[in-house]
């Protein structure tokens, strides 16, 4: 598999739309197109192998399933993971002749983590250059030149995204694909480096799931609904979609029970209200 200039350019456009602060907006860009789960489908369509793209995207999403960006603090940039890591992982998997889905997923996870660190540099580069445009905007406001704000808000940010989103994605995907393919001879499948990548890749989802557990588990009983999906998959052989539907049913039940409790508590609070002082007045 190779990546042409046109394919690399399209990947660069999606990287620009997905970057945060994104040209596609936070909801459509960063939180939708930028997620590896969606990026895998997009990369699969662009590179002509949808199934492999989805396998890589799902694998990388597990690692970053609990990633948040509080106050602009970014530990890894999933935009780079989606549109640099996934394409390069697809090329590497094809060049190595990996046909097993689990091995392909483990290899993709390792590639995603390597690129995610690089993406952090690109993220802060974009944010830093946007500060220059912001300074120009404040200066225009002070001078009463409000029409210049259109350029500051709508046009100049494209320069930032071109330099730190589009251009790196274009170059890394086009030339990185050749480099990854050349590594096939230097890193044989039965060698220590490749075995290390597979081993590390198989362990990385534990990190993402552990971070997610740290955020949602407050007491021991919170583990019960968390393990429902694993139990359904192991005992009934359900796939992820079926397990998600069953979990949605339980989530709806929990929601209805909680709403009933809140309504009862509100009714009790109203009934206990003492208005004697108001009557005395």
How would you describe what is shown here?
The chain is mainly alpha-helical and 281 residues long. The protein has two domains: 5-216, no CATH class; 220-274, no CATH class. The protein is 79% helix and 0% strand. The chain contains twelve helices and no strands. It has helices spanning 5-18, 26-33, 36-47, 50-63, 78-96, 101-142, 148-186, 192-216, 223-226, 228-236, 240-271, 276-280. The N and C termini lie far apart (84 Å). The model has no long low-confidence stretch (mean pLDDT 76).
In short:
This protein is mainly α and 281 residues long. It folds into 2 domains: 5-216, no CATH class; 220-274, no CATH class.
Keyphrases for this structure?
281 residues, mainly alpha, 12 helices
Helix and strand content put the structural class at mainly alpha
* Total number of distinct structural domains: 2
Number of helices: 12
- Major beta sheet, specifics? none
Q: How would you describe the shape? A: flat
Backbone CA Rg:
24 Å
Order of helices and strands: HHHHHHHHHHHH
Which residue ranges are poorly predicted, with pLDDT under 50 across at least 5 consecutive positions? Answer: none
Number of strands: 0
Distance between the ends: 84 Å
Protein name: PTS system, fructose-and mannose-inducible IIC component
Subcellular location: Cell membrane
Keywords: Cell membrane, Membrane, Phosphotransferase system, Sugar transport, Transferase, Transmembrane, Transmembrane helix, Transport
EC number: 2.7.1.69
